[in-house]
Write a structure and sequence with these properties.
By secondary structure, this protein is α/β, with parallel strands linked by helices. The protein contains ten helices and eight strands. Strands 1, 2, 3, 4, 5, 6, 7 and 8 form an eight-stranded mixed sheet that branches. Helix 9 links the parallel strand 7 and strand 8. Helix 1 packs parallel to helix 10, helix 2 packs antiparallel against helix 7 and helix 6 crosses helix 7. The two termini are 13 Å apart. The relative contact order is 0.20.
């Protein structure tokens, strides 16, 4: 049996994945393969480097410190300066780079303990690009490069944007790589109906959510017979829905705890686990 952890994108809502990871490892479920997108790439690479409960607990502490780390904050003056200077993004990615370097210092993908891949969107080739080797920091930074918020990441002759543009919850990639048991760690809300956007800034959020759900639905529709797929619950979502308030870190601890409790309950109730 080849067990895959698939970690999807979703910005700060990705804190739920930390709780899911904790419940999985506490249950003794360890991956043979980790596939991540965007914030799921950051969470996933930590587990690929060190698949232990202690590593997840440290990851949780890192999440709780996000506000102090200035990843998506910074002064209004600095944000305006970035837009004026570069014209296409609000935040530098230096704080996020430092965060990734701390999570997986000096690592190369091919040297991680668990096989790991993450996805980003190639601008020049307009396609999904799967990072399977090379520096962890560059690959994860590229996968997390949210359009308009963070700058594209140049690697070699290509520039990359957030992997959520092409494969937000990459179940299909895990299947292509031979997974026979897949645990899907996502940011929630997939069962809730979307509402027609009422404000200009809601249009992009709803459009992205449609694409995310469509990709996941397509992947799940082609799961071969004999392959287990477990879509883990997030529990009570203190945020409710995707929002333009991408820098709000107030509910991180609650989201982690809720997802851990809900996932642990789910795992106890699945007999074959």
């Amino acid at each position: 049996m080849t067990t895959a952890f698939v970690l999807g994108g979703g910005g700060l809502l990705g804190a739920a994945e930390v709780g899911m990871l904790q419940a999985l490892l506490e249950r003794g479920i360890r991956p043979d393969l980790v596939v991540g997108c965007s914030i799921g790439a950051l969470n996933g690479v930590v587990i690929a480097a060190d698949p232990t409960v202690d590593a997840v607990l440290q990851l949780g502490e890192t999440w709780k410190e996000l506000q102090a780390r200035d990843v998506f904050s910074g002064s209004v003056v600095r944000q305006i300066s970035n837009v004026v200077s570069h014209g296409t993004y609000l935040h530098s990615n230096e704080a996020l780079r430092r965060l990734i370097e701390q999570a997986a210092p000096g690592a190369r993908i091919e040297d991680l303990e668990i096989r790991f891949e993450c996805v980003a969107a190639s601008i020049e080739n307009a396609r999904a690009h799967w990072f399977k080797e090379g520096p962890v920091v560059d690959a994860v930074l590229a996968s997390c490069a949210v359009p308009g918020l963070l700058p594209p990441v140049r690697i070699g002759d290509e520039h990359f944007m957030d992997g959520g543009l092409v494969r937000s919850v990459p179940v299909g990639r895990a299947l292509d790589l031979g997974a026979t048991r897949v645990f899907v760690l996502h940011v929630g809300r997939i069962e809730r109906s979307l509402r027609v956007p009422r404000r200009p800034w809601e249009v992009a959020v709803v459009a992205f959510e449609i694409a995310r759900r469509h990709q996941l639905s397509e992947d799940l529709s082609r799961v071969p017979a004999g392959v287990e797929v477990h879509i883990l619950p997030t529990g009570r979502d203190p945020a409710g829905t995707l929002s333009t308030r991408y820098g709000n870190t107030r509910n991180i601890s609650a989201r982690i705890a809720s997802a851990r409790e809900a996932t642990a309950s789910y795992l106890r109730n699945v007999a074959e686990l």
